[in-house]
Request: fold
Amino acid sequence: MIPKRMQAFLHERLPERTWKNRLRRENGRCYMEFNATDVDRLARLGIEVDRLGPHLVVCMWDEEAPMEVGGYLVVDNLAMGKPAMGGIRMLADITPAAVHGLARGMTLKNAAASLPFGGGKVGVIAERSLKPEEHLEIVRRFAHLLAKYKPLFLPGPDVGTNDADMKTIAIENGLDTVVSKPAEMGGSQVDLVGAGAGGLVIALQALLEEMPRLKSLPQFQNLNIPSPAEITVIIQGFGAVGAHTAQMLEARLPGVKVVGVSDALGYLYDQQGLPVEKLFNIWRERGHVTRNYFYEVLLSDQWGVSLTKYSSAPNDLLRESAFCLIPASPISNYLDLDESTQPAVTVSRMGQWSVIIEGANTYSPDRARRAARARMEREVYRQRGVLIATDFLVNSGGVIFAAQEQLIKTPGELRIPDEMLGNRPAVDRWLAEHAEALQDLAEKRRKAGEVYREKAIRANMRELIDLLVADPDRLPCEAAESISIRRIARRESDRTAAEIMTPIYTIQEGQSVAEAAAQLVTTNSSLLAVVSPSGELVGVVTDWDITRAMAQSVAAQAPLEGVMSHPVIGAHPQDTILQMIEKLEHYEISAMPVVADGKAIGLVSADLLARKSLLRLLQSQIP
Reply:
């Protein structure tokens, strides 16, 4: 059945005629699809179409489920490659606009990491208080909804889901239809190995090397880069990312002090440094750290020698000072100038920091939020001299590790047999039989993820500083977005005719002008390939050729040979987008066939390139 919140939202936003025209039912599963041409309908859902996307928005639900099963899929952009990769977020009040914002973050994150995947996201509407068996059934049924989009979207875990849920999806849809699976399935176990956290630590290491170059900017003239023993860090959100970050900081930067941490129940702060390993163990055993540490350690300090501060107001951690702040809580609006947006803390009350490394998803394509972000950065970065490493440049460790499950292919003998899909006991037996090989595959992917993560995030930090030093007026958020868009533009420039061409219609060389005109109309095409009886391309005829023939009083029954264009200007299947643009402009034509071995295999046109190649990105980002 459709979730009540979803039904109310969609009926409020979409008129009845949209339901009638767009709703498709397939074996009890319901879909309403919208693409980038549905500007008005997407606006009703709170989504603004821009130069990047979205490519596809789907409202979906299972009307035959015994419980409420439904949500939204957003495939934002596929320029880096197909499918899009992103997490499944499970929340009671998730909206299409929120999912789109997260999907856009994935577009930029995957691009920044130079991963060959587009950006997407799923929002499942579900209460967090579900019983385990209810949660399992929702994930299982939603896997069936997503199966329709396997070529377009590759899911992983996010807030409200985990690697066990990815196992469920893999059991239903196949091993290679999901990422961040358990190691028993050859997966990377992103949270267990601290993939995201490791990226934040690498970013800090890289910035310690790169930041001295910022001294050329007026706000950083007095910048002091301390030795590791003098570096202090506060971590907002001591969850999977925050806890592993604290632990890895001690391992990779000996001497660094984690002086503050927070969670949902409060915060701890100690200028001398907190006992990271003890806090990590408390988190691993019981989840919440701050209050447990307060009761078990601070209150038992009968001599009162501890200088550790505890507060039940988590957000007040951001009023404390340290060299580095790492926001790792699922709160996108951690800092703002205006209290009306309800940030964790306003800029006027923030502590003193030298660098912020964002470990939480903070990016939003929403115009108001982008404007607010820019205002915040003008104050924090430009006036106060605090460097901000934007989320999608630094917290990509998770997607980098997850991507290895696709980049390092699953051998055929380690793929679950199709006849077993959906049969959990049978799959578990099959996994047990292949346990050793799958564990080896998981370890191979983990090691590849470590190497890739180090290289990608260091490159991003170097490029971030390059851009900021080159343009004193550029804000970190603008530099970060430019890095991702450059990656997309470069990928766009490398795309080939074979990747983007559309089908081409043909006509036999012996047919007449009238027959060609009729076929152009019925196929709604601007160009026909004229072929010989053996299928060889001998010419092309366009709507302009027909118009010119009529103006010259050519008989309607005249053979095509007299009006078609020959020799043919065509594209090779491996021609890049830029090569095709140059060819269209040089010959002053609007379309041309893609030719291989003397035969027309597809069509490219100026209109197609404008729609599929993000020309504005190419023009602004490619020298």
User: Anything to note?
Assistant: Residues 615-623 have pLDDT under 50 and may be disordered. Residues 512 and 557 are 5 Å apart (CA to CA).
